[in-house]
């Protein structure tokens, strides 16, 4: 391959990675914006989203590549069921682990989130075992340039790449519309700005927090399903690495800022793909977390985040 073909190929790979990171990062930033909690268990909800989607496919008898009307009906159904399952799981985590600590010090829910993360990982370990699991190739993979356009190129763009972008971008746009235009979204923004004032104005803060965990969990489930269909493999520890990279993306864009989280997710996706190709995969995590340290030191409010106003 020519140097520019390698660059284009890795950029495409970075786009698909970044789309998944962006979906996970949105869940991080939504919860932090509402209750200022870094929910370290969120990456493991993403991992369970992959496992749960696999179970839904099995229950519906899907074991091979979907085609025709099955693709049009079964795939959206599994998306919906998976997102609903992980949304309910995320709400349950909040009700059981985080809500009792709502008025405690900030350290207590943070430690609890780490504990919940370990618990979810062990649930996955007991459920599926330590070995990597094979995810059925349910979505057709077609080389678009060669099979659709007859172009003999060293660059591979497949229908799975289109699936990732075609699924994540509408979800992000729908989330943006929900937060910006709907009554519940306005309640979320008001609660994020000032919880006490929002409650005094008649907003049910606890219901708003519940809705935030519900939406964040649904996005994590969608990301897990997309990850499974794209890579056709899952592992019980995968939420740890993806969660840390998505958290880095949220901090990079501005924790609490949703457009920033999406931007940060794509940036980390491109960075990790380019690092794997031009430096070494073993150094990718070090590079990603070096970016996190630099952001925290020199621009702690992130690329799109605003500096918090000083109270006098």
Task: Explain this structure.
It is a single chain. Helix content is 74%, strand content 1%. The N and C termini lie far apart (60 Å). The protein is an all-alpha fold and 312 residues long. The protein has a single domain, classed as Orthogonal Bundle (ABC transporter involved in vitamin B12 uptake, BtuC), CATH 1.10.3470. It is globular, with a radius of gyration of 20 Å. The longest helix has 33 residues. α3 packs across α9 and α10 packs across α11.
Task: List the topology elements.
Layout: H1 3-35, H2 42-59, H3 68-98, H4 107-128, E1 133-134, H5 144-148, H6 159-181, H7 183-193, H8 195-200, H9 205-231, E2 233-234, H10 238-253, H11 258-278, H12 281-298
Antiparallel strand pairs: 1-2
Helix pairs in contact: 1-6, 1-9, 1-10, 1-11, 2-3, 2-4, 2-9, 2-10, 3-9, 6-7, 6-9, 7-9, 10-11, 10-12, 11-12
List keywords for this structure.
312 residues, mainly alpha, ABC transporter involved in vitamin B12 uptake, BtuC, two-stranded antiparallel ribbon, 12 helices, 2 strands, 74% helix, 1% strand, globular
Entry summary:
With 312 residues, the chain is an all-alpha fold.
**CATH level 1 class label:** Mainly Alpha
Which fold name is given in CATH as the topology? ABC transporter involved in vitamin B12 uptake, BtuC
Classify the beta-strand content into a percent band.
under 5%
The rough form would be described as globular
Question: What is the CATH architecture assignment?
Answer: Orthogonal Bundle
- The computed structural class is mainly alpha
What number of domains? Answer: 1
Instruction: Please report the distance between the alpha carbons of the first and last residues.
Output: 60 Å
- SSE arrangement, N to C: HHHHEHHHHHEHHH
The residue ranges in which pLDDT falls below 50 over 5 or more consecutive positions are: none
Overall pLDDT metric? 93
| Count of helical stretches | 12
Helix content: over 70%
The major β-sheet equals: 2 strands, antiparallel
Instruction: Work out the radius of gyration.
Output: 20 Å
Q: What is the topology, as strand order, of the major beta sheet? A: 1-2
Strand tally: 2
């Amino acid at each position: 391959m020519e140097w520019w073909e390698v660059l284009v190929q890795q950029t495409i790979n970075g786009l698909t990675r970044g789309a998944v990171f962006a979906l996970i990062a949105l869940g991080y930033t939504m919860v932090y914006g509402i209750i200022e909690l870094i929910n370290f268990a969120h990456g493991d909800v993403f991992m369970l989203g992959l496992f749960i989607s696999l179970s839904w496919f099995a229950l519906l008898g899907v074991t091979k590549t979907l085609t025709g009307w099955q693709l049009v009906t079964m795939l959206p159904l599994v998306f919906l069921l998976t997102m609903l399952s992980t949304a309910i799981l995320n709400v349950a985590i909040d009700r059981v682990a985080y809500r009792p600590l709502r008025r405690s010090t900030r350290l207590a829910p943070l430690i609890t989130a780490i504990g919940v993360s370990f618990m979810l990982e062990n649930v996955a370990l007991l459920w599926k075992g330590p070995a990597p699991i094979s995810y059925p190739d349910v979505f057709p993979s077609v080389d678009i340039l060669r099979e659709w356009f007859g172009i003999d190129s060293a660059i591979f763009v497949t229908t799975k790449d289109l699936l990732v972008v075609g699924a994540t971008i509408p979800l992000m746009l729908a989330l943006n519309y929900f937060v910006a235009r709907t009554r519940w979204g306005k309640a979320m923004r008001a609660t994020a700005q000032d919880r006490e004032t929002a409650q005094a104005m008649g907003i049910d803060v606890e219901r708003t927090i519940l809705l935030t965990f519900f939406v964040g969990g649904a996005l994590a489930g969608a990301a897990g399903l997309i990850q499974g269909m794209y890579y056709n493999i899952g592992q019980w520890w995968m939420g740890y690495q993806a969660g840390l990279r998505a958290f880095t993306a949220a901090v990079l864009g501005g924790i609490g800022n949703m457009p920033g989280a999406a931007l940060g997710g794509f940036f980390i996706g491109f960075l990790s793909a380019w690092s794997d190709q031009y430096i070494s995969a073993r150094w990718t995590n070090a590079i990603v977390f070096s970016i996190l340290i630099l952001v925290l030191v020199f621009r702690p409010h992130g690329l799109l985040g605003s500096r918090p106003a000083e109270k006098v």
